[in-house]
Amino acid sequence: MFKGLRNALKVKEIRMGLLFTFFIMIVTRLGSLIPVPGINVAAVQEYLAQTLGDSNSFLASFTGGSFTQMSIFALNVTPYITSSIIIQLLTIAIPALEELQKDGDDGRKKITAITRYVTILLSVIEGLGLAIGFDRGNYLTLDSKILAYLVIIVTLTTGSAFVMWLGEKISEHGVGNGISIILLVNIVSRMPSDFQNLYEKFIKGQDIVDQVIAAAIIIAVVVVTVVLVVLLQDGVRKIPVQYAQKMQGRRLAGQQGSFIPLNVNPSNVIPVIFASSILSVPSVIMNLFNVNASGTWAKILRGMNQNYWFNKSYPWASLGLLVYILMVFFFAYFYTSVTFNPMEIANNMKRGGGFIPGIRPGKPTQEYLNRILNYIIFIGAVGLIIVAVIPIFFNGVFGADVSFGGTSLIIIVGVVIETIKQIESKMIVRNYSGFLSE
Q: Quick check: pTM over 0.85?
């Protein structure tokens, strides 16, 4: 690994790309320290903790703490991620967007532009919602409410747009996918404080034996979770494909073997994000409108809050975990059905003279792909649930509260693997270029 890194750093293009990416990382972290003017930051932090509940740690992880600190980069990449998911889903529902997606580079550029506009719109809406919440809590420090609203909306929207622009610059001149790299830096930046909290709660002040046991358990849980995530991200089911022989001029060509790679986790972290977001919506709305829940409603809200799952004091709240699991399964199947079309693949194979050994072309191939895909999605969803529930379990049983969880680890591992593959591909291209130039 270190030898490969050394060889990569010898290539000027990769070396400059890594330096540029590192510089952008520093810029994003510095922007996360500059507070939004016109608000009482300390009071806002307390307000967000009460209003968002367990979603607060989720946002803190995705924004690198800039949201809880209410900095100029408070929204960070979250509007862009939401916009990308919305556009991706609408591409299937709206024929015009589907045509743009199939229209090569020009179509993709137009979809990228639409994604940017939706990002700005979402940033404005989120900025307005936060401004209204701060106003109701008397957290605004400017005399003019209109000016305070404008400052908050413009600052947050500009910060989100600037982070989006930085991410695109990393993709153009740096290494890896820019938005993913920024998201990775945000998550990793929170980890030192999380491990410090774990140290102070479970290790500090204990005798030497208990310290060793606690440290070993913490390391083992992290390592096992990372290994599961790596297996989940790299798992692929390869379906063999053969192509019939064809006459090309005077030569008989064909019979070459290929395969269709089906990822074990085709929907990545989308099901977990959707399930967590939907479960947190009721409590966020009720807190925003100052609605006090009691009796049965209070129990239902606790059941939707991940902080109460596996908690012995609230045994009924773990029913929310069952709802969470069912939602992860639902979104795993739904998102994959939207983004992966077995009928289109079967038709393309038939037109190209391809077939799966033992399976007839056309509808039998489509049914076979559907059957295999359903099996794979189930395995991927089970893996997602295990990875996502591990930190929730230790939080509920032992009070090990950390901002990073299974979702964050899946993103970290996925981005690292993707970036390493991109560096390796650049190395391969350079080696081929050197060979051809000789």
A: no
